[in-house]
From TrEMBL:
Protein name: Phosphotransferase
Gene3D superfamilies named among the record's database cross-references: 3.90.1200.10, Phosphorylase Kinase, domain 1
Domain of life: Bacteria
Pfam families: Choline_kinase (PF01633)
UniProt source species: Pseudonocardia alaniniphila
């Protein structure tokens, strides 16, 4: 993780974003009266992220300030619980502070780390490290929030209707196959474990120097108890995994790549694209200030979902689970 600038001294804010940081820092009574510098950290889409240097502290800190509109999707208390679980399991940064009222979170700043790229995760050794992180997270104590991908999709569909978000003309076809996949998966029983639910490459951090630092996970905003196969499915969609790599990762996670397991992951890949496609289309209605074309992103995800359900093997995957 790298900060963009040397930073500003507390009390010298010039912009709305900097004033928001200083307001959040003012609520941290343990740091009252200390000399503090803060600098923006790049990479956040929904939130405002900052690197803090606090007088007398043994290391720097990472502060996350929730973005406007993110409360429609994120339970901050549940996200912090998941982050603390990852900390306790040794797979996430150390958690320092959390303000339940504002959702502001302060964590250890992971020195000498950088965010993964999609290219990084095509390297088998890094992809397998990500799988190992999921195996560890999934072994943890259940979270207080259970929210399956079905709950997420249904919530987004309600929000689409409420906000009038624009969706593709073939959405009804996609939703019919969603119903079929849900019926097949629920009939087998949901394997609920603590899940990250947001496996984009940037949420995996690797050592940026010569040392052999262990891979870490960050950003638990969408975490909940969910089916473990869904976490794996989101990972392979974000990695653009080919069929061979997907089978290798299924085997790495489960210890085998049986037909029912691979079919389960394939069905969840379509549902992952449906969930994030709806999310992207909604974001374009909720906030125009994040500098990202969310509607285009959402339509692309929904197009890939349509491609998966149009695969000639889709009926066989429905039967195999």
């Amino acid at each position: 993780m790298t900060d963009d600038t040397v930073g500003r001294v507390l009390g010298t804010a010039r912009t709305d974003a900097e004033r928001a940081v200083e307001k959040a820092l003012g609520a941290v009574t343990a740091w009252s009266g200390r000399h503090i510098r803060y600098a923006p950290v790049s990479g956040g889409l929904q939130n405002s992220n900052w690197c803090l240097t606090v007088e007398g502290a043994p290391s720097r800190y990472f502060m996350k300030i929730p973005g406007a509109g993110s409360e429609a999707f994120i339970d901050r208390a549940a996200a912090n619980q998941a982050a603390r679980l990852a900390d306790s399991l040794g797979i996430g940064p150390g958690m320092v502070l959390f303000d339940a009222g504002s959702g502001v979170e302060v964590a250890e700043f992971l020195e000498h780390y950088r965010a993964c790229t999609t290219g990084d995760l095509t390297r088998p050794e890094l992809a397998h490290q990500a799988i190992a992180l999921y195996r560890t997270l999934h072994s943890g104590e259940p979270l207080s929030l259970t929210k399956t991908v079905f709950d997420m999709i249904d919530e987004h569909l309600d929000q689409v209707r409420e906000l009038g978000a624009a969706l593709p003309a073939d959405t009804d076809l996609i939703l019919a196959e969603y119903a079929a996949a849900r019926k097949a998966l629920e009939a087998t029983g949901m394997d609920l474990v603590p899940c990250h639910n947001d496996s984009k490459p940037g949420n995996f951090l690797i050592g940026s120097g010569a040392g052999a630092l262990p891979m870490k996970m960050i950003d638990f905003e969408f975490a909940s108890n969910n089916d473990r196969a869904y976490d794996l499915a989101v990972l392979v969609t974000e990695m653009f995994s080919g069929e061979r790599q997907t089978l290798e990762l299924v085997e790495a996670y489960y210890g085998c790549a049986t037909r029912p397991l691979t079919a389960r992951v394939q069905l969840f890949t379509a549902l992952a694209d449906l969930k994030w496609g709806l999310w992207g289309c909604l974001q374009s209605r909720l906030n125009q200030a994040w500098g990202f074309d969310y509607h285009k992103y959402g339509l692309w995800k929904l197009m890939r979902c349509r491609m998966t359900i149009g695969d000639h093997r889709w009926p066989a995957w429905l039967e195999a689970v």
